[in-house]
Structures are given as C-alpha cells and as structure tokens.
Amino acid sequence: MRLGATLVGALVAVCCTFVDAAPRAVRIGVTAGEEAQIMAQVRDVAAKQGQPLDIVVFDNPLHIDAALAGGSIDAASFEDEASLDARRRRDGYAIRSVAATVTLPMALYSRKLASLAQLTRGATIAIPDDAPGIARALILLQNYTFITLQDSAGLSPTVADITSNRYGLVIRRVPRARLYAMLDTASFVAMNADDAAHAGLMPGRDSIGIEDARSPWQHVLTVRSSEANAPWVAQLVRACHSDDVARFILARFQDSVRRPW
What we know:
Layout: H1 2-21, E1 26-31, H2 34-48, E2 53-58, H3 64-70, E3 75-80, H4 81-91, E4 95-100, E5 107-109, E6 124-128, H5 131-143, E7 147-149, E8 162-165, E9 170-174, E10 188-191, H6 193-198, H7 203-206, E11 209-210, E12 219-224, H8 231-240, H9 243-253
Parallel strand pairs: 1-2, 1-3, 6-9, 6-10
Antiparallel strand pairs: 3-12, 4-12, 5-10, 5-11, 7-8
Helix pairs in contact: 2-8, 2-9
C-alpha cells in the first residue's frame, strides 16, 4: 500500500510538472481583415513550433494599444511605427515595436491613364485631406520623382514643402470618403489600402503606382517594453517571418499586401 501511494504521488508530481511547463498562449491583438487572416497563418506556424497563440480581433483599433499596455493582450499587429510613436507620446504607453509585419500600401489609381508613363503636364491628382494622408501621398509622389520635398519635412510634409513639381501637377486635397468619386475627374488618385478596399480596388491589381514594401508606414509587431527581449517574442517574430507565412501572403493577397522582411 505504501509503495502504491508513493508511485501515485510520483506520477501526480510528474504530471503537474508537465502542466506547469506547458507554454502559456500568447494573446495578440489585431484588426479584422488582412491582419487577422495573416495572424491566423502565423498561429498555425507558431503551434507547430510549440507556441500557442490566441488571436483577439478588435473592432476599434484605438483600443489595442491600451489593451497591450494594460496587460489584456501580450502583443499587437495593426499599426505603423509613426502611429505607434504618436500614441506612445500622447498616452505614455510603455510599448515598443520588435519587427516589421506587412505593408498595406497606398497606391495611385486612374480611369484616364493606363500607366504613369502617360502622365502629362498639368495633370490633376487627388490626395487625402488629412495630415497623415497628405504626407504619405506626397512622399509617394516624390518616390516616383514627380515632385521634390524639403528634406526638413521628414515624414510629415505638406504641400507647402514641395520645392519642385516637374509635371506641374495640380494637387487637390479631398476628404477620404470622396476619393473614389474623384476617379471620374482627376487624372489619378492616391488612396490608402483601406479606402481602396472599400471601393473594391486592390493595389496590386488595379493601381498604376504603388508604395514600396519597405515603406515608413509598414506595420509593426508591438509588445510591452519590459518583455521585448523575452524568448517568446523572438519565437513569435520567427513565426511571423516564416516561409509559410510569406507564401500565404503572396498566394492570398498577391501584391496588395506587401512583405517588408
């Protein structure tokens, strides 16, 4: 009887040890759509590597950083570095980026031009009228060498920062909700990925110009600053940057979701 009790006790101890050693699921916050679909693929890869991952989809992206800073989730993938920096400064969140994830590119669309090679002097372009949209559109135009911006403008240029405009482009700032309608009148239109998707457009299929994958507005994986060097973070980054995830992004989204890693 004493031997049996000892054996049972040993087995219980071993089982408890295995239970305690089981990795805790990492909770990662995302928005619906591309981010959630890609993270579902990351979850499958992470599971094969022994790291369970729970995906938490937020209806309002403004709540994600607060949830991360407050400990409700362990990581997040939904925003670019500039947005992260702005929220961190405003709200004092101790969170930081640890890796690039994907770029949802701003692109140029037209019903009048088959390609940018057909652009003529005095053409009209419609761009978003909000400050982040203006900056992103102007930098995209500079990347295509249509305009030049003051170096001091950094990532926040305005129309006043244009130092040269070799095509004499007429730049019209338009509310985002009206950008799609501007395709009827403007030579071309700059739209971010969300606005294009709402209009049924795909950057990789329908645009005549597109933002580079390594855009300053590439999305980043964020964690609490105190955990940035934790082993589970490195494991999560490996899953995000795995070949399986790369193949999924290409097959599912083609060039409409771009991979900066």
